[in-house]
Amino acid sequence: MKIFLSIVFVCLPMLTLQAAPRCLWVSSYASGYAWEDGLEKGLYSVLDGQCEIQKFSMNTKINKSTDYAKQQAKAAKLLIENYKPDVIIASDDNVSKFLVVPYYKNSDIPIVFCGINWTTEEYAYPFKNVTGVIEIDPARPMVETIKTDWSMKVGSIFILNADTRTAKKSAKNLGRYFRKAGIKTIAYYAKTFNEWKQGFLLSQNYDVSLLMNNSGINDWDQQQAKKFVYNNGKTLTVSFHKWMSPFAMVLFTKQAEEQGEWAAKMALEILKGESPENIPITSNQRWDEYVNMELINAANITLSKKFIDRAVPID
């Protein structure tokens, strides 16, 4: 009996498999939203096979109330307590606002944020347990291209957006940037498709119509929007979002995949033993350029051949 027991105790460690580290992705939005799907692609391209990944979607793009966001944050907190992740990836502003700051400021759980627009000042990041990636709209390359490559005067920009928390934060920071560049701005927020169309008509009185996110306009009509901008778009329309390509003449687009890749690489560094406070906060560096010649020709707008040749055409 003594011999048998000794064999069992020696063999048990050999039979024990080392558990994979646990990565929890808490998202402000939900799958099916183009930005979210791009983030997911970037995250999984780096983390797949490196850790066990679980996702929690707060779905606050569709459900915009503060009470709902707080309820979702509490549900995410309960999941964290039960799942006990080795690292949390917190994407977009609402996870930081309603989950990280209230419950995990300077806690022992490492957290990597991504998709936070322009600045982290409202969250007072970094914390000792938090680092991440800031999301900045390609406003600088847009202004430089319009002024330098196209020799166009840009004295005013109309920012047309859905009525969401993130939209208002982005518009505020875009306005701050454009003012420094000597450009006046006005921001308009649409709750409904009809309000968006009214805003688009108003935007025609400005040098540039900047079409931000339409996500959050629940009665959005894709086909009607295409017809409307084709028939009514006479001023230069620009967007930072690829999914707005049917409605904008020119796009300087952020890459959601880049945000996901950065966050995932930071998470891997943490899993290897690095402290979040030793990983500097960074921001996106890449953008893509697209051109919608159908809308440009309909508006009789002339862009430089140099830009048209290098930009990707929208089908």
What does this entry look like structurally?
By secondary structure, the chain is α/β, with parallel strands linked by helices. The protein has 2 domains: 20-136 and 256-283, Rossmann fold (3-Layer(aba) Sandwich), CATH 3.40.50; 139-253 and 288-313, Rossmann fold, CATH 3.40.50.2300. Helices cover 43% and strands 20% of the residues. The chain has 11 helices and 13 strands. It has helices spanning 2-15, 34-47, 66-83, 93-104, 139-149, 165-180, 193-203, 222-232, 256-271, 293-299, 305-310; strands spanning 22-27, 52-57, 87-91, 111-117, 130-135, 156-162, 184-190, 208-211, 236-239, 250-253, 282-283, 288-291, 312-313. The strands form 2 sheets. The protein has a 7-stranded mixed β-sheet with strand order 7-6-8-9-10-12-13, sandwiched between helices. A 6-stranded parallel β-sheet has the order 2-1-3-4-5-11, sandwiched between helices. Helix 2 runs parallel beside helix 9 (256-271), helix 3 (66-83) crosses helix 4 and helix 7 runs parallel beside helix 8. The protein is elongated and about 65 Å long.
What are the SSEs and their pairings?
Elements: H1 2-15, E1 22-27, H2 34-47, E2 52-57, H3 66-83, E3 87-91, H4 93-104, E4 111-117, E5 130-135, H5 139-149, E6 156-162, H6 165-180, E7 184-190, H7 193-203, E8 208-211, H8 222-232, E9 236-239, E10 250-253, H9 256-271, E11 282-283, E12 288-291, H10 293-299, H11 305-310, E13 312-313
Parallel strand pairs: 1-2, 1-3, 3-4, 4-5, 5-11, 6-7, 6-8, 8-9, 9-10, 12-13
Antiparallel strand pairs: 10-12
Helix pairs in contact: 2-9, 3-4, 7-8
